[in-house]
Amino acid sequence: MKKNKLLNLALIVIGNFILAFSVAVFILPYNILSGGVAGMAVVLNSLLGIDKGFAVNFLVIILFLIGWLVLGKEFAIKTFLSSVTYPIFLSLITQVLPIFEIDSLLASLYGGLLAGVGIGLVMRTGASTGGMDIPPLIINKITNIKVSTLIMIIDTVTVLLGFMTYGLEKVLIGFISVFATGFMIDKVLVFGGSISKSVQIISKNPYEIIDKIHNTLDRGTTISEAIGGYTKEKRVIILVVVSQKQYNELIDIVNSIDKEAFIITTDATSVHGEGFSFGFRV
C-alpha cells in the first residue's frame, strides 16, 4: 500500500513536469491554440491582454477549487500536488530554457503528444493535473462519458475561441495539438492493460460449446437466459472473455459445433481476475 502511494506521488510529479515542459517549450512560445489551461491562456492573452503565465496559474487555482467543491475532498487531496507542482515547473522551465526555433506544426504536434503523456500519467493515479481536465471529470461524473473524449471536446471548443483573433490557420494548427493530446491520453491510460475480447455466443448447442471452451481454452463462462424477440423461444447466451491470441481459436470452436451460432464481440481493455492482468480505463 505504501509503495503504491509513493508510486502514485511519483507519477503525479513526473506527469506534471512533462505537461509543464510541453507547455513551456512548445505551446506558449508559439501561441499554439491547444486545449487545457495553456490554450485558454493564449486565448485570454489575445482577447484581454492577460499575461499567459499569470492566466495559467490563475486558472489552475480556480479550477482546483471548483473540483474540490464538486468532486470532493479525496479528489482535492490527490490533485493538490498537481496544483502546486505544475505552476512551479512551468515557471522554472520558462526561465531556464531558451525559446527554440522550430516550425509551429511540429510545436503543436509534439506539444500535444507530451501533454497527453503528462495528463495520462496523472489520471492513472486517480488525480487531475488541476487544469481544464477538471470540467471533463465533473461531466464524466454526471454522464459517464469517457474523460478522454470530453477533454477532446472541451479542447476543441477552446481552440475555436481563438478563431476571431488568430484566424483559420492557427485554429487548424491547434487541432493537431488537441488530437495528439487525446490520442496520447488514451494510450497512456490503457498501457499495461490486457486487451482482450468479450464474446457473447447464442447457439442451439450451448453446453457443447461451453465444455469445449473450458477444456480447450481453459476459460470460464457465464450463462444467462434470454427470449428471442421474433421467435419467442428461450435461448442460452454464453459470455466468455478471452485473450487476443485465443479469439480466433474460440471462433473456430464455435463454428465447428454450430456454424449458425450468433456471435457478438467487443474489445475489453479492463479485465480483472484470474488469468488476466489489471487493465486501465478512464
How would you summarize what this structure contains?
The chain is an alpha+beta fold. The chain is built from 11 helices and 4 strands; from the N terminus they run αααααααααβαββαβ.
Distance between the termini: 22 Å
Low-confidence stretches: 277-282
SSE run: HHHHHHHHHEHEEHE
Rg, alpha carbons: 24 Å
- Give the integer mean of the pLDDT values: 82
The tally of domains stands at 2
Class derived from helix and strand content: alpha+beta
Largest sheet: 4 strands, antiparallel
Query: Helical proportion?
Result: 55-70%
Q: What is the count of DSSP helices, taking H or I runs of 4+ residues?
A: 11
Q: What's the arrangement of strands in the largest beta sheet?
A: 2-3-1-4
Give the strand tally.
Answer: 4
Percent range for β-strand residues: 5-15%
Shape: elongated
